[in-house]
Specification:
This is Nucleotidyltransferase. The chain is an alpha+beta fold. The chain has nine helices and nine strands.
């Protein structure tokens, strides 16, 4: 079996249903009454975001991301919005866990990240997010994120790297990983899938540590700052081991 045949076999196994029968839509439907009770008329929209919409999700590690857009007229602060959603979810029987910009709950066996945000104005898709780490806010635009990742056409390589990350138990946030893969392959064309994945490992081994990765929707938000130097060293070491491995099943399976 060639490298490409092996990697494509993994991609088929890890395919995620994004059609009308997708569990993402069922989870969203289950939660919508809770969101309406919590936010009322301030709720503008709830829609899937993250890996599901970018085409970079893997079946064995699928987190469902729901982006909750609130009106710019919402009186509560971003910190208060998080706290009120946490309370509401607890009241209806969930056990929410606080994360940096989201609340995580388990719904129908799925891990679901809820990202509440306040729209900045009615003309754009820019939103303000609360960052629990540091207690501050940051601007984001999930539509820009989705379009940026989809336009790069690196979904296959990203999905392989996510599978590798999960199996090696690395602290490598998905958006940071996606942007890193895109950067690593930005000047690479005409190679096989196997070679392109190797190029990403070489980039992680040789260049990753010194590159500051910027949010394409906010030039003041450095995504690379979300991972400690110690965790970056673990990523580099794992990439070095991957590049030195004799067989693909030693790298990812």
């Amino acid at each position: 079996m060639t490298a490409d045949e092996y990697l494509n076999m993994l991609l088929v196994r890890e395919a995620v249903n994004t059609g009308t029968t997708s569990p993402v839509l069922a989870v969203q439907a289950t939660l919508m009454p809770i969101f309406w009770e919590w936010a009322g008329s301030q709720l503008l929209a709830v829609h899937p975001s993250g890996s599901f919409m970018k085409g970079t999700a893997i079946l064995s590690g699928t987190d469902i991301d729901l982006f909750i857009s609130l009106s710019e007229t919402t009186k509560e602060s971003l910190k208060e919005i998080h706290a009120l959603l946490f309370t509401k979810l607890t009241q209806v029987g969930y056990a929410p866990m606080r994360q940096n910009v989201s609340l995580n709950i388990k719904v129908q066996g799925f891990s679901v990240d809820l990202v509440p945000a306040k729209r900045q104005n009615p003309l754009l898709n820019d939103h303000s997010l609360y960052r629990r780490n540091g207690g501050e806010w940051t601007k984001t635009n999930v539509v820009t994120h989705i379009n940026y990742v989809r336009a790069a056409n690196c979904q296959q390589e990203i999905r392989i790297l996510k599978l590798w990350r999960n199996q090696k138990k690395l602290d490598f946030p998905s958006f940071y990983l996606e942007l890193t893969v895109i950067k690593a392959l930005s000047l690479q064309t005409g190679y096989t899938l196997g070679r392109r994945v190797q190029i990403v490992f070489e980039y992680l081994r040789d260049t990753f540590a010194t590159v500051r990765v910027v949010d394409p929707a906010n030039s003041n938000n450095f995504i690379s700052d979300d991972v400690t130097d110690g965790e970056k060293l673990k990523i580099i070491a794992a990439a070095k081991a991957a590049r030195n491995a004799a067989n693909w099943n030693e790298i990812v399976k």
